[in-house]
Structures are given as C-alpha cells and as structure tokens.
Amino acid sequence: MSFAAVFTIFLIVSPLVTSSSLTFTGNLPSAYEILAGYNFPIGILPKGVTGYKLDKTTGEFSAFLNGSCSISEEGSYQLEYKSTIRGYISDNRLESLSGVSVKVLFFWLNIVEVIRNEDELVFSVGVASSLSVHSVAGG
C-alpha cells in the first residue's frame, strides 16, 4: 500500500464537512474557519469538532471532539483521531501534532506535521517519512 493511498483520506474527508459545520454561534470563528484562515482545507479535521483553543501569539492550537474518532477505507487505510488534537499552527504549517495517527500495514504511526505548498499537502509521519498529496480541495 502506498503512502499516497493512505493519505487520500484527507481529500475525501473534506467534502464531509459541510457548510453547516462552519456555522458557530457567537462572534468567534469555528475551528474549521481557523484552519481556512491559515490556508488549510477544513477536511483535515473530522466533522464534529466541539471546540478549540488558539493562542495567536504562539500558534498553539487544540481541537476537541466528543470522543475518539476512527475513519477507515476498506482495504486501504485507517485514521484515528483522539478526543483532543494538539499542535502549533502557522500559515501553511501544522507542526508538533499529537492526537492523529494512521494505520499503515500493521503499525499505527503518528502524523506529526502537515505543510501546504500551493495545491500540495506534505504529511510527516514519525521522524523520517513524508508524503505529498496533490490537488488540495477546499482551500
């Protein structure tokens, strides 16, 4: 199984987050709108984020789900999101991520960084792996 097949989920998940998911009561933007403001497709987070924290000074970002979430594509890949996803966000970069992992063959690997370069997303898994995904939808 290629890494490209594994991370196609991020392009598939993007349409699952509908415009109604972007609505946030009050004056604060939603977590999905925050991602878009840093030039990321909203599909990087699963549907159902209940809240978030953002320190604009440091870029420290946390997104909260009601519980862990698993997304799988039969015969291809499985992604798991913990109830809290943390990292540091800046324009075109999510780093020091925790709370997102992908199953490759028989192993669970943490996704630790995502970099956007125009229409390409580069995902770093662990310390030495990376993948480029072209044609980023939604952003």
Automatic annotation (TrEMBL):
Residues 1-19 form the signal peptide. Gene3D superfamilies: At5g01610-like. Keywords: Signal. InterPro entries: At5g01610-like, DUF538. The keyword Signal applies. This is F22D16.19 PROTEIN. It comes from Salix viminalis (Common osier).
